[in-house]
């Protein structure tokens, strides 16, 4: 590692630019290395809940109960896996950006659940709201991976 | 007052962050906020002992908080950039940016 920082007051403009570049490079590398659980989580959350709400909206009886329990189990497994993966890095997850992601997902998920309750059996409404859950989650994941 | 005590941005550089390893540790924590010891070590590309030594200096200065936890029976150390550390880092980067831009200013400024 080249040490251009050890001589107090001896940094010239070129050295300062090199240090700024290095800071940016290291910061991005460290952040990229720990970002994958977050991108994976939001993607998996979107896929699981969109498929779950779509299936709940179009099934009845025992099949509905199986889908309902399966979706809940998938959600619990996802949250537990995510919490284990980010252990020690909780500060990252409490950022304003993540609040927006989760709030966006929650709004579309509530809409999809409302369709399950009030317009049960409608292929159109189930498809639209469940598709929205997936699209929002994938947009959030894409945004996170590029941020 | 000596000439060295003027307003040149180099006087605003943080003494602690002028060490290359400490500079890199804080840079690694800048975006992520909190990282595991091994993640910082891999990002900075130094040995465990060298990292421990510099982290201790940053912790003493209040720039970094060191957390200890156990995952099963395995100890896990986490490093978090504190508010003071972030403020010092921002000031240090601002001074560097001013130095970096100083050769693009007109000669009449100096």
Taken as a percent bin, the fraction of beta residues of chain B is 15-25%
Helix/strand/pairing class of chain A, anyone? mainly alpha
Helix content of chain A: over 70%
- Percent helix of chain B, as a range, is 40-55%
Give an overview in words:
The complex is a heterodimer of chains A (147) and B (110). Chain A is 83% helix and 0% strand. With 147 residues, chain A is an all-alpha fold. Chain A has one domain (35-146). The longest helix of chain A is centred in the N-terminal third of the chain and has 46 residues, at 13-58. The two termini of chain A are 27 Å apart. With 110 residues, chain B is an alpha+beta fold. Chain B has one domain (14-92): Arc Repressor Mutant, subunit A. Chain B is built from four helices and three strands. Chain B has helices at 20-32, 37-44, 48-60, 83-102, and strands at residues 34-36, 64-71, 74-81. In chain B, helix 1 (20-32) crosses helix 2. Chain B starts with 19 loop residues before the first helix and ends in an 8-residue tail after the last helix. The model of chain B is unreliable at 106-110 (pLDDT under 50).
């Amino acid at each position: 590692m080249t040490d251009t920082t050890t001589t107090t007051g001896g940094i010239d403009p070129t050295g300062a630019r090199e240090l700024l570049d290095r800071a940016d490079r290291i910061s991005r590398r460290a952040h990229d290395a720990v970002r994958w659980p977050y991108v994976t989580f939001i993607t998996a959350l979107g896929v699981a809940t969109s498929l779950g709400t779509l299936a709940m909206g179009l099934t009845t009886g025992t099949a509905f109960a199986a889908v309902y329990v399966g979706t809940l189990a998938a959600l619990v497994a996802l949250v537990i896996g995510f919490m284990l993966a980010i252990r020690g890095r909780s500060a990252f997850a409490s950022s304003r950006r993540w609040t927006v992601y989760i709030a966006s997902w929650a709004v579309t998920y509530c809409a999809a659940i409302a369709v399950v309750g009030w317009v049960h059996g409608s292929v159109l409404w189930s498809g639209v709201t469940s598709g929205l859950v997936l699209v929002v989650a994938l947009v959030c994941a894409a945004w996170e991976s590029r941020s | 007052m000596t000439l060295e005590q003027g307003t040149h941005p180099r006087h605003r550089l943080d003494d602690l962050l002028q060490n290359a390893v400490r500079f890199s540790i804080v840079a690694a924590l800048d975006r992520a906020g909190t990282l595991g010891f091994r993640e910082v070590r891999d990002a900075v590309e130094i040995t465990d002992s060298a990292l421990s030594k510099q982290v201790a200096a940053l912790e003493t200065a209040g720039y970094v908080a060191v957390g200890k936890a156990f995952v099963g029976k395995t100890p896990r150390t986490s490093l978090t950039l504190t508010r003071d550390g972030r403020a010092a880092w921002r000031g240090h980067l601002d001074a560097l940016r001013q130095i970096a831009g100083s050769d693009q200013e007109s000669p009449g400024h100096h």
